[in-house]
Amino acid sequence: MTKKYLLILWVCVYHYAYAQQNNFVIPDSLSTKDYEYFSKKIVYKEKDSIKERLYAQSWLAKAKWEKNFGQMAHSYKALIYTSNKKLQLIYADSMLTAAKRTADMELIGSVYMTKGVVYYDRKELMNALDNYLIADEYISKTNNHYLIYKVKYGVAQIKYYLAFYDEAIALFQECINYFKEENERAYLNSLHSLGLCYNRIGKYNLCSQMNLVGLSAGLRFKNLEMEPYFIHSEGVNQYFKHNYRDAIKKLTKALPAVKDNKDFTNVTTAYFYIGKSYWAQKLQEKALPYLKKIDEAFQKQKYIRPDLREAYEILIDYYQQRNDKELELYYVTTLLEVDQVLLKDYKYLSGKIHKEYDTKKLLQTQRNNEQYWTVVVCIIITIMTVFMAFLVYRHVKNKRLFEELMNRKPETIQSLVSNNSSKELDINPEVIASILKNLEKFERNKKYLEKDMTLAKMASVLNTNTKYVSKIIARYRDKGTVDYISNLKIDHIIELLKNENKYRNYTNKALGEESGFGSTQNFTRAFNNRTGLSPSYFISKLRSQ
Question: What is the tally of helices (H) and strands (E) in the chain?
Answer without folding.
Answer: 26, 0
